[in-house]
Amino acid sequence: MLSAKSLFQEILDNDESFRLFCSIAASGESQGGWENARIAALVPAGERALAPKITRHGADEDKHGRIFDALMKKRGLDPVPVPPETDYTMLLEKRGIGLAHAKLEGDEPLTVQDVITYLAHSRVTEQRAADQMEMLRKHFADHPAVGKAVRMISHDEDNHLAYTHEELLRFVAAGHGRFIQRTLRDCALAEIRVYRNVSLAVMAHMGRILGWPRAKSTLLAAGIHAMYAYERSGGWRTMVSLRMPERLNALGGPTTAAPEFA
After folding, report:
1. Exposed, middle or buried, 36 (CB in 10 Å: 0-12/13-18/19+)?
2. Which residue, 158, 91, 166, is CA-closest to 131?
């Protein structure tokens, strides 16, 4: 029977599929670390109090990249190049979601709308990350090889999601509610398309590595398309709602170390 647990277990048990999985994850996390560091450096003067939290966000993402690299190293594996069709972060940027790298590579301070755009992008993508890590935590929190990593990253993703809710609600109170809702909606609708396409690409690569029969690959692809249909018909709204989190000031302190991995 196909399940998320059995699928990930199969990927985990094979060196080549595990190496590809970790390489894709490490690349995305490292890219997120760079983006957050640049955003923190360019925050406008009126929002400088936000810069330490953005820096913490980026430091967490860098830490996650190191964790995935360390998981590979523990098995004597080297990273592999990330196939471009599986590069979630860059594909989102190509669709105009989030802040363009050309802007982040410059020296011009960001605007308040830029900061809101960053937070809205993070609200949507961190929801995806938190949901994925919750699933992995449910099934693999006690796994001897990846359990510690899963628990640590899941905790951080929950913090990131709480932070985006709190900061976006602060901007709603400041009168930016309409822009925030429009930006969230655009980002969510683009994200679900990119996530579908990336999921199909990743499963195609895994199928080739693991020698899946055509019937299994077809069934998995059908499941990905069904999830997209659900999200497109209204499931995306869970990515754009805002509520004050129980965990306030979630990124108000320093990043936690990961000495057992990095």
Report:
1. buried
2. 158
- Render each residue's pLDDT in the chain as its tens digit; 262 residues: 578 899 999 999 999 999 999 999 999 999 999 999 999 999 999 999 999 999 999 999 999 999 999 999 999 999 999 999 999 999 999 998 999 999 999 999 999 999 999 999 999 999 999 999 999 999 999 999 999 999 999 999 999 999 999 999 999 999 999 999 999 999 999 999 999 999 999 999 999 999 999 999 999 999 999 999 999 999 999 999 999 999 999 998 666 665 555 4
From CA 256, how far away is CA 60, in angstroms rounded? 8
User: 62 and 29 in contact (C-beta within 8 Å)?
Assistant: yes
SS3 readout for the chain: CCCHHHHHHHHHHCHHHHHHHHHHHHHHHHHHHHHHHHHHHHCCHHHHHHHHHHHHHHHHHHHHHHHHHHHHHHCCCCCCCCCHHHCHHHHHHHCCCCCCHHHHCCCCCCCHHHHHHHHHHHHHHHHHHHHHHHHHHHHHCCCCCCHHHHHHHHHHHHHHHHHHHHHHHHHHHHHHHHHHHHHHHHHHHHHHHHHHHHHHHHHHHHHHHHCCCHHHHHHHHHHHHHHHHHHHHCHHHHHCCCCCCCCCCCCCCCCCCCCCCC
